[in-house]
Amino acid sequence: MAVGARSGADGPDRRAEEEQAERGERPDASPEGRDPEGGADPGGAGGGGGGDVTEKKQRSFLKELPILIGVALLLALLIKTFLLQAFSIPSDSMQNTLQRGDRVLVDKLTPWFGSEPERGEVVVFHDPGGWLDESTQSDPGGIAGAFQGFMSFIGLMPSAEDQDLIKRVVAVGGDTVACEKNGPVTVNGKALDERSYIFPGSAPCGPEGFGPVKIPEGRIWVMGDNRQNSLDSRFHQDLEGRGTVPVDQVVGRAVVKAWPIDRWGTLPVPDAFAEKGLAAAPAALGVAGALPLVLWRRRRLTARTEPRAARGRKEAGRSEG
Q1: What would the mean pLDDT of 279-302 be, rounded to a whole number?
Q2: Of the residues 80, 108, 167, 257, which is catalytic?
Q3: pTM above 0.90, yes or no
């Protein structure tokens, strides 16, 4: 019986494996839960292979995590540099359009394509020189300062060091802006109806008035919506440019109030700046003004050439005679 039992162990299954080995075929899989050596199958029900696979997945994720963070930071930096940047409102000069502490997103893309600020837009611009008191700029320092510096570098927080302001564009290069005492503000002789955006009860330009000021090409005239609490172009006319801001100092146009959530909204151009007749003399008026000069010049040229032609005809008649 012992011999029969042993021969049974080396029976059909053993012979089938030997025949497969002779044909160069891989032996059939071992019974579930066992490897060919007789040990536990790592993928079987009784093995510990599931834990190994999970551990490998965790190690793979930890290796990829720095790459994912690096890509996210790079994208944030590119967006801040070329597309949008967040800015914080530090004062009440733009009430009620913007409140102190609001966060706005500024469009930095369109200036790359040659777009310049237009009347009525709310823009962020660098201090053109002498507008801000540097002593009022505070640096938190320490860990908080380092964190804010890093977040501002990638565009997720405003910088504590940037000397930036936010105002509304009232006039652009070629315009003439003025205001007599308590208003209204006029652009190229056209009075602006600013009731939709200036702070309630705020006079358009105060008791003193200003101007008229001719805006040089490549510069803009800016004013805050809270006219009684805004140190804007009116108060810097003793500086270079007579209170105007160079276009190349404009960071971009504020397009969205992003924070707090309950104040979310866009910042469109008010209807007051879309009225006809606001723009400076258009090309058609320039042509109309030049036409009399052209006609006068033609008459003078004709008057000079007619006597010469007459003399030429007389001389030709004499030669023929």
Answers
A1: 47
A2: 167
A3: no
